[in-house]
Design a protein that fits this description.
Elements lengths: L12 E2 L15 H7 L6 E2 L11 H11 L2
Parallel strand pairs: 1-2
InterPro entries: P-loop_NTPase (IPR027417)
């Protein structure tokens, strides 16, 4: 998806998704921000796992860069 009327692809990444949601110093939560601007919901990502981190987010970012 694109942010507002720009042609710049936009993705919100929820890093450290293994932790509790932190207090935001903004009037909207990340999910509400995405809803308001008609973006996909934040993509969850964490490196704090026993297994190797998921590569899905990198695939999504690469795809968005290749096909804006």
């Amino acid at each position: 998806k694109h942010f507002l009327d720009s042609k710049t692809p936009c993705v919100i990444i929820a890093a450290k998704s293994d932790l509790h949601e932190a207090r935001q110093y903004y009037s909207l939560s990340p999910l509400d921000f995405c809803r308001k601007h008609k973006l996909h919901p934040p993509q969850l990502f964490t490196c704090n796992t026993a297994e190797a981190p998921s590569k899905d987010i990198y695939t999504k970012l690469t795809t968005m860069a290749m096909y804006p």
